[in-house]
Write a structure and sequence with these properties.
This protein has 497 residues and is of the alpha/beta class. 62% of the residues lie in helices and 7% in strands. The protein has a 4-stranded mixed beta sheet. Strands 1-2 form a two-stranded antiparallel ribbon. The two termini are 36 Å apart.
Length: 497
């Protein structure tokens, strides 16, 4: 994944000013924001339970995050809010030490994210293999789908009928009406049917209290001392890196969907600033939310920052003045929309039998490992980290056996030349040790490294061990063909490690 500090010359970001001046774009981006805000509500509320905070805390934090990232983020149209992955990390600390430690933990996490962006460390994401990225996307699709099942499965017949109606509207309406997002039509239609039909259904209001109004700024409830730092720093590190990982991977996904680049560095420091603001006014951290982002970008066709500004403003309006109306929205319609999002999120091409047949087994295993680890733990960071580690192990194992040493007898049998080919590092250099005939070689051995390079101290130690073993047999060893960097590296460490 490459770092894009500026937008490519041939691709211009759809500016807010241009959207405001163009009625067609203004309507599209606004409606996408409305649908996104409605899709955020139930998920944000449910995540607040995981984090051990009041639902209003997560909703207000989501408004702050969404608005801040609309202005500061590096990926237009990507939705940032109080996310489940962050809630999973904060929850244990809250349950053990109390909500007072959330603010310092979130602020510290924000500082770490700012440093990550300022130092340009976002380019490290390029080391995440495509198979891990595919597994990440597929696992998210599964998690989003599974989270919606309880709102549909096992419910009464009315819920099932409204679920079918939701699917029909969202999937079929775009064929005849494209100016209004079909999810918005489904939400309005199903809510009106439920309210005026007098049906008793699970609603958004059942997920948490929908009291109107705004809270004040959060006060620091714990002392700023070493004990507080010891409590919050493990949580802060986890929040920082989980948030960065999910945001950067989601940004890459949106880059692919929209065929436009984004600034990963700006996304990192922007997320840090947004989390600090959310900590002081709201109360909890967040990151990109892939499900709601897909709603915004895929279903709403949003392409600008205006869509997420609209989502933040609509969410603010719903939380303050229209909380009573918001509370009446049936959960089944939001569950139906998110299930469609989950299906769209899955990379079906990666699961096709033809693709699996052509794909190397190691790539498929990495993808499956990422999916299983993510779904099993419910933690995206664990899944991605597990996938990356497994990919590294498979890569190291595969590359360890690409080193070859061709043996050639020279000087009428008085010398032997070994021509080594391949990268020499901690894995392959151990394999190199086995390529020599220590007891059978003549009194002079030449190791030609013209077609190889020394990459680490393990290789220098392996070469020293080879020379030592030959000396035990009274054989002289000469190493030649090293490039300048490898020669200096070998000279500096040989005999000293």
């Amino acid at each position: 994944m490459s770092e894009n500090h500026t937008v490519a010359p041939h691709v211009r970001e759809l500016s807010v000013a241009h959207v405001v001046r163009t009625p067609r774009l203004l309507l599209r981006e606004t409606l996408a924001g409305v649908v996104t805000a409605l899709a955020l509500i139930p998920e944000v509320i449910s995540f607040s339970v995981i984090a051990g905070v009041d639902p209003k805390v997560s909703l207000i934090a989501s408004i702050v995050l969404c608005f801040c990232m609309s202005l500061l983020g590096g990926r237009p149209a990507m939705v940032t809010a109080a996310a489940g992955s962050v809630a999973l990390v904060i929850g244990p600390m809250v349950h053990q030490h109390g909500v007072g430690y959330i603010l310092p933990a979130v602020v510290l996490a924000g500082v770490i994210q700012i440093l990550f962006g300022v130092l340009g460390l976002a380019r490290m994401m390029r080391y995440i293999p495509r198979s891990v990225m595919t597994g990440f996307v597929n696992a998210l699709g599964i998690l989003i789908f599974m989270a919606q099942v309880p709102h549909v499965w096992g419910q009464n017949s009315t819920v099932l009928l409204l679920f079918i109606l939701t699917l029909a509207i969202v999937l079929l309406l775009p064929r005849v009406l494209k100016s209004i997002p079909s999810p918005l039509v489904a939400i309005v239609a199903v809510t009106l049917i439920a309210v005026y039909g007098g049906y008793t259904l699970p609603t958004v209001g059942d997920e948490g209290p929908m009291t109107p109004g705004l809270p004040g700024f959060n006060a620091l409830l714990v002392p700023l001392n070493l004990q507080t730092l010891q409590i919050v720093w493990p949580c802060a590190l986890s929040v920082a890196f989980v948030g960065l990982m999910e945001s950067l991977l989601t940004a890459k996904l949106v880059d692919d969907i929209t065929d436009t680049p984004s600034s990963k560095r700006r996304e990192c420091w922007g997320l840090g600033v947004a989390n600090i603001f959310a900590g002081f006014y709201g109360g909890i951290a967040g990151c990109a939310m892939i499900g709601q982002t897909v709603v915004n970008v895929e279903l709403g066709k949003a392409r600008s920052r205006f869509s997420t500004i609209a989502a933040a403003l609509v969410l603010l309006l719903l939380v303050t003045g229209l909380s009573a109306i918001m509370a009446k929205i049936p959960m089944v319609v939001l569950a139906g929309i998110m299930m469609i999002v989950a299906v769209k999120t899955l990379n079906w091409h990666s699961l096709a039998p033809v693709t699996l047949k052509r794909m190397p087994l190691s790539e498929t295993l990495v993808m499956v490992t990422t999916v299983i680890a993510t779904v099993w733990t419910g933690n995206l960071a664990v899944g991605v980290a597990g996938g990356v580690i497994f990919a590294m192990v498979l890569f190291a194992r595969r590359i360890a056996h690409v080193v070859h040493a061709d043996r050639e007898v020279t000087e009428e049998g008085k010398a032997v030349r070994y021509t080594v080919r391949g990268p020499l590092f901690f894995a392959s250099s151990n394999d190199l040790y086995e390529h020599f005939l220590y007891a059978d070689d003549p009194s002079r051995v030449i190791i030609d490294l013209t077609h190889a390079q020394i990459w680490d101290a393990s290789t220098v130690a392996a070469l020293d061990a080879i020379e030592t073993r030959y000396r035990q047999h009274g054989i002289e060893v000469k190493i030649q063909g090293l490039d300048l960097r490898s020669h200096d590296f070998h000279q500096r460490l040989s005999g000293k490690i």
